[in-house]
Design goal:
Layout (H helix, E strand, L loop, with lengths): L9 E4 L5 H12 L3 E5 L13 H12 L3 E5 L6 H15 L4 E4 L14 H29 L2 E6 L2 H4 L6 H21 L4 E8 L12 H6 L6 H7 L10 E5 L2 E5 L17 H6 L1 H5 L10 H12 L2
Parallel strand pairs: 1-2, 1-4, 2-3, 4-5, 5-6, 6-7
Antiparallel strand pairs: 7-8
Helix pairs in contact: 1-8, 3-4, 4-6
The structure holds 1,4-dihydronicotinamide adenine dinucleotide.
1,4-dihydronicotinamide adenine dinucleotide binds next to helix 1 and helix 4.
Length: about 300
């Protein structure tokens, strides 16, 4: 097959000063994309600011003949998100690709979690993804083209001890992208979500150093690059990637049971049928909320 290239395309990668975002920015730039390298800098738990990481990635891209510009705004502020997207417009006239990747961690078990740490994590991940997506969407709609890749986590999709703030934000991003997928469809805007696994400063808090060295961000980058490309035609999907593993995760609804809605339905009837209600064997995905509602109504013969 012909090589996937990004000539003539502009990509915004948030949190691209290190870790996964850096790997995405380098790969896209090496294949012809003009890249806005956004990064606020600061610590893994979202303290302080530093323009060095984003600038270093831009310097690296330029050294190898690529084109990039740095931006140091905070994704979790609406004004900041608008400036990130405006940087793409001012420098390159368009924004074709948005990779929502910026992130922090503030892990604590539920009872120990400070409200401020809950809110901060929601602000950076969920609000940051909403703000950047909203700002980019306006331009993508004008262009009738866009690729948006946002970042969830296994902590949200499957759960993880001590990450109620992070898990809520990450699964919120899945819900956000499911809806952006619906709204973008008629404008050629595709929105997908990645569930990465990679050794970075975030995972260095929970993984041993030899594992961190092995599962490089560079393994996730090809999946994100594909989802960012013109070749990609899927939308509203969740993909796992890491350590050479690539897969799709999905929300599946089982065939369930249908009781006669005209009859009295009791909690005991639920208890009796609970095994069948719980089974996802022979289940299916729904492309939208309307499709799921339509399924229920069709069974009711409404
Ligand atoms: P990282 O800490 O190396 O990269 C995150 C970058 O985001 C940092 O450079 C940081 O300065 C930047 N950032 C933080 N807050 C920002 C803000 N408000 N505005 C702009 N930039 C900001 O961590 P990593 O692992 O590369 O994380 C990238 C994304 O992948 C995050 O969303 C993370 O939650 C997600 N993720 C990573 C996993 C992994 O295995 N590394 C697993 C699951 C999800």
């Amino acid at each position: 097959m012909s090589e996937i290239q990004f000539d003539g395309k502009t990509a915004v990668v948030t949190g691209a000063g290190g870790g996964l975002g850096k790997a995405y920015a380098l790969l896209l730039a090496s294949r012809g994309a003009k890249v806005v390298v956004n990064d606020l800098g600061g610590t893994f738990d979202g303290k302080g600011v530093d323009s060095t990481p984003a600038q270093k990635v831009v310097d690296q891209i330029k050294t190898t003949g690529g084109e990039a510009v740095a931006n140091y705004e905070n994704v979790s502020e609406w004004a900041g998100a608008q400036k990130i997207i405006q940087t793409a417009i001012d420098n390159y006239g368009q924004v074709d690709i948005l990779i929502n990747n910026a992130g922090i961690l503030r892990d604590k078990s539920l009872l120990k979690m400070e409200i401020a740490d809950y809110l901060k994590v929601i602000e950076v991940h969920l609000n940051g993804t909403f703000f950047c997506t909203k700002a980019a969407f306006a331009h993508m709609r004008e262009q009738n083209y866009g690729r948006i890749v946002s970042t969830a986590s296994a902590a949200g999709v499957y759960g993880n001890f001590g990450q109620t703030n992070y898990g809520a934000a990450k699964m919120g991003i899945v819900g956000l992208m499911n809806c952006v997928c619906q709204e973008g469809a008629r404008y050629g805007i595709l929105a997908n979500t990645i569930v990465p696994t990679a050794g970075t400063r975030l995972t260095a808090t929970v993984m041993p150093p030899d594992v961190i060295d092995k599962i490089k961000p560079e393994y996730v980058a090809p999946m994100v690059a594909y989802l960012s490309s013109e070749l990609c035609q899927v939308s509203g999907k969740i993909f796992s990637a890491g350590g050479g593993y690539y897969s799709r995760a999905a929300i599946i609804e089982g065939p369930g049971v249908f009781f006669d809605p005209e009859a009295k339905i009791t909690p005991e009837m639920i208890a009796e049928q609970f095994e069948q209600i719980s089974s996802v064997e022979g289940g299916r995905e729904f492309g939208s909320a309307m499709e799921q509602t339509g399924h229920i109504l069709s069974k009711m013969s409404v």
